[in-house]
Specification:
- The chain has about 450 residues and is of the alpha/beta class.
- Helices cover about 40% and strands about 15% of the residues.
- It contains 16 helices and 15 strands.
- The chain has helices at about 5-20, 30-35, 40-55, 80-85, 95-100, 120-135, 145-155, 170-180, 195-205, 220-230, 250-265, 330-340, 345-355, 360-385, 405-415, 445-455; strands at about 55-60, 65, 105-110, 165, 185-190, 210-215, 220, 235-240, 270-275, 305-310, 320-325, 395-400, 420, 420-425, 435-440.
- An 8-stranded mixed sheet has the order 4-11-10-9-8-5-6-7, sandwiched between helices.
- It is elongated and about 95 Å long.
Length: about 450
């Protein structure tokens, strides 16, 4: 019998003996084990040494091998940690619930990412495989990102590649902006409602979100100016295109007013442009395409707008590539904020992202994706028995509920019925003006969206 097999058999024999023996009882001798398993003395001694290291047996030279004394297992007690940790400063529970993978049989009307059937997996896999084999791919890369990818992000915004900092996804970019542009304890202006991940990130940095109402045309400039003056905030977080959760795009006539309010306050806008690739057009076959205005960054030459642009929403959750684009001293501050976090973004992922966005297959993927998402959006809108504002892009439908409805309770009851939806309350920095649900239409085909709504409002 080979030594490894013999040692395994001897170990199993001794474990069985230990299991039925009392501490201190003598176990079979080395000679007996050699004869029983036809093994050499070194093999037997190796098996005994392994069990002795595990605390199961005790070898007494000249006397034999004995069952070791069993100590009572100690129950861990980490309760002491409550004292040094103090009060919880980071509350990500709502975000964790939103990001947790759903059960396979759930009807998912809550996911902010594309499902597997809509992801360009062949394009992603091929690009990453090629990138991983390139010479130097696993070496250090420029801290700001590889030059080609920085040039791609810069061209879309009318910026210089030197203004671009590549980050591992939009959430990391948000955290860097909040940490780099605002002092702990400062106020930060957010739309009401606003992206849940931004609220969590701001609070994690010790910032105080100050809500400014948004309507179907985006944030209200008059109330923004008042909030800037009253709060002293120097950072405004906006999603001007297909905002999450409410889907609105900042109206053309409001853009100049928003920029002027921010300039007058000497503040920054953090422009989160996550859904630019998901312009779907009007609902139910109405004529016209979605009008996607240029980035706010393009209308600002003095460095008031800091832009975040992510590739994740239109590709796959695992393509954690985004960019922060900023001018002036703010760019240096943001670079420092990013470098201390994780130094740089891995080279193969950057190389793969650059190949992906330059491939004809990427443009074909976006065309097909927009068609599918528009069909799913229209199916969801048709199924919801309540009046809604139809978004012309993104993947979210914001549903006002009848007064007096408990949106959190409704979401919990829907989950019990196998339907995952997101209550509106966590998207508000303060008390919401009413109950809402955020329904997403990316993760399910039309027939499953309709079934989900049927169960939701049953």
């Amino acid at each position: 019998m080979p030594d490894d097999n013999a040692a395994t058999a001897i170990t199993a024999t001794l474990e069985a003996e230990v299991a039925v023996s009392a501490p201190g009882e003598r176990l079979p001798s080395v000679r007996e084990l050699m004869a029983r398993h036809r093994a050499g003395p070194a093999t037997v001694q190796r098996a005994i040494a392994e069990l002795a290291a595990r605390g199961l047996v005790e070898a007494r030279p000249g006397r034999g091998t004995f069952v070791a004394a069993r100590s009572e297992p100690r129950v861990p007690d980490p309760s002491w940690q409550a004292v040094p940790l103090g009060a919880r400063s980071i509350d990500a529970d709502a975000l964790v619930r939103l990001l947790r993978p759903p059960s396979p049989d759930a009807l998912v009307l809550s996911s902010g990412y594309l499902p597997a059937d809509l992801q360009p997996t062949a394009l992603l896999g091929g690009a990453l495989a090629r990138a991983a084999r390139r010479p130097g791919a696993w070496d250090r890369v420029p801290l700001e990102g590889i030059s080609g990818l920085r040039a791609y992000f810069a061209a879309e915004a009318g910026a210089s590649p030197g203004d671009v900092l590549v980050t591992p996804g939009g959430q990391a970019a948000l955290a860097a902006c909040f940490r780099g542009l605002a002092a702990p304890g400062a106020a930060i202006i957010v739309e009401s409602p606003s992206y849940l991940g931004a609220l969590v990130a701001a609070r994690a940095q010790g910032l105080r979100p100050v809500p400014v109402p948004a309507d179907a045309h985006g944030i209200r400039p008059d109330l923004l100016a008042d909030a800037l003056a009253a709060s002293g905030a120097r950072v405004v977080y906006l999603q001007p295109i297909f905002a999450n959760p409410h889907g609105a795009t900042l109206a053309p006539e409001r853009r100049a007013e928003v920029l002027e309010a921010v300039r007058a306050a000497g503040a920054f806008i953090v422009e989160d442009d996550a859904f630019r690739d998901l312009a779907l057009g009007p609902a139910h076959g109405r004529r016209g395409a979605a009008v996607v205005p240029p980035p706010l960054f393009a209308d600002d030459q003095d460095g008031h707008v800091v832009r975040i642009r992510s590739l994740t929403k239109a590709s796959a959750p695992g393509l954690r590539i985004a960019a922060v684009i900023a001018r002036g001293p703010a760019a240096a501050r943001l670079r420092a904020a990013r470098i201390v976090e994780d130094l740089f973004v891995t080279g193969p992922l950057q190389e793969a992202a650059l190949e992906i966005v330059g491939a004809p297959a990427w443009r074909a993927h976006l065309r097909k994706l927009r068609t599918v998402l528009a069909e799913r959006r229209d199916a969801l809108v048709a199924a919801v028995p309540l009046p809604v504002v139809v978004p012309e892009g993104g993947m979210n439908l914001w549903v006002p509920l009848p007064p007096g409805t408990d949106d959190v309770d409704l979401a919990q009851r829907a989950a019990a019925a196998g339907v995952l939806v997101q209550p509106g309350r966590p998207f508000f920095a303060a008390e919401p003006p009413g109950p809402f649900l955020r329904l997403t239409f990316a993760a399910e085909p039309p027939e499953r969206l309709a079934e989900g709504v049927r169960r939701l409002f049953a």
